[in-house]
Write a structure and sequence with these properties.
about 375 residues; globular; about 15% strand; alpha/beta; three-stranded antiparallel beta sheet; Aspartate Aminotransferase, domain 2; Aspartate Aminotransferase, domain 1; binds pyridoxal-5'-phosphate
Length: about 375
């Protein structure tokens, strides 16, 4: 075959549900010369990444590392390690990603009990407690920031509910990581996973995870070996811990990028970053309402990094998004599940959360709708 021309994509402005725009510093860091995955220089980079991931999660957990794979690989890692065949899992579903957790847990051979909230609304902690009344569960899992609906779920009530069921508390923090406060230790979350391409604004490909000592005790006490060799935390801990034993070749350059993205987060400061997401999402929402658009999620539960916008009657979802992409190079997200064809999803994540992004999005939408 004759080689095609070098692949160079058109420039885009990313305001969908992820990936978000990646700062040039992160791309440059990722483009540095590759070094060995056991090189002492690289080990230093790994250790700094782990410390920075702990800071963003608000945890002291030793078992904190980036899984080689996207956010879903982080999800699969936790369920593969925490659940054994026949274990009961209480999974809260109020959107696509809760549904995915239930599916992943089922595939581990767990007996899954799902508690559902309507799409676009948060979970009712009392209903969750009632759904599992009188039963023991190995895990209680929920999504902190449901990117499919734009709902932020308060984590605070769930530690006590998990305790009633003797369960480990697992949280999907894919879209909250570096965009809204998480505080794993304060909320007593035992295990969490995230991804790099949402509010962290690094390219997709890694999944920062963190597990409490109690969660790791569960992993060590397993009766059956973890079915996945690649995602086995006891093996991964030997590479990421003091032993530095080869498991799989770490994606060295992706971790260079992760290091820089985390460094940018801590340089900005966590509080400042959360404040920026909260303030600018308020500006975006005011602008959208100014265009006569409806925001289906109640203000009290809106997720700053992702806003759900109702598609006005008579407007074609795909045609509008195509217009934004072709004319402005602007990507926003379509609706998923119950909101397919009925809503758009506009992301303000990390480097994509600026006044410039908001101004472009509002004027481009105004044009596309007229
Ligand atoms: C994006 C996302 C995921 C899945 O992450 P991938 O990187 O696409 O595998 C899981 N949960 C939530 C809440 C997400 O937004």
């Amino acid at each position: 075959m004759k080689a095609p021309a070098p692949f160079v994509a058109k420039e885009r402005v990313l305001m969908g549900p992820g990936p978000s725009d990646v700062p040039s510093q992160v791309l440059r860091a990722q483009g540095a010369p590759t070094i060995g995955h056991l090189d002492p220089e690289f080990l230093r980079c790994m250790d700094e990444c782990r410390a920075m991931i702990r800071a963003v999660y608000g945890t002291e957990n030793t078992m904190t590392l980036p899984i080689s794979g996207t956010g879903s690989a982080g999800m699969e890692t936790l369920f593969a390690n925490l659940l054994e065949p026949g274990d009961a899992a209480l999974i809260c579903t109020h959107g696509v990603f809760g549904g995915r957790m239930a599916e992943v847990a089922r595939r581990q051979g767990a007996e899954v009990v799902e508690v559902k909230a309507p799409w676009g609304q948060p979970l009712d902690p009392e209903k969750v407690a009632a759904a599992g009344a009188g039963r023991r569960f190995r895990v209680l899992a929920l999504v902190h920031a449901e990117t499919s609906t734009g709902v932020l779920q308060d984590l605070a009530p769930f530690r006590a509910i998990a305790d009633e069921h003797g369960a480990l508390l697992v949280a999907d923090c894919v879209t909250s990581f570096a965009g809204v406060p998480i505080e794993l230790d304060r909320h007593g979350v035992d295990a969490a996973y995230s991804g790099t391409q949402k509010c962290l604004s690094a390219p997709p490909g890694l999944a920062p995870i963190s597990l409490s000592e109690r969660a790791m005790e569960r992993v060590r006490a397993r009766e059956h070996e973890v079915r996945s060799w690649y995602l086995d935390l006891r093996l991964l801990a030997r590479y990421w811990g003091d032993e530095r034993a080869y498991h799989h070749t770490a994606p060295v350059n992706a971790i260079f990028g992760l290091h820089e993205a985390l460094r940018l987060v801590l340089t900005e400061g966590l509080e400042a970053r959360y404040e920026r997401h909260a303030r600018l999402s308020g500006e975006l929402q005011a602008g959208l309402r100014g265009l006569g658009l409806e925001l289906p999620v109640a203000e009290t539960h809106r997720l700053p990094p992702l806003t759900l916008v109702g598609i006005p009657d008579g407007k074609d979802d795909k045609q509008v998004r195509r217009h934004l992409l072709d004319r402005y190079g602007l990507e926003i997200g379509g609706g998923l599940g119950d909101f397919a064809g009925k809503a758009w999803r506009i992301g303000l994540m990390g480097a994509s959360c600026t006044p410039r992004h908001i101004a472009l999005c509002l004027s481009a939408l105004e044009d596309a709708l007229s």
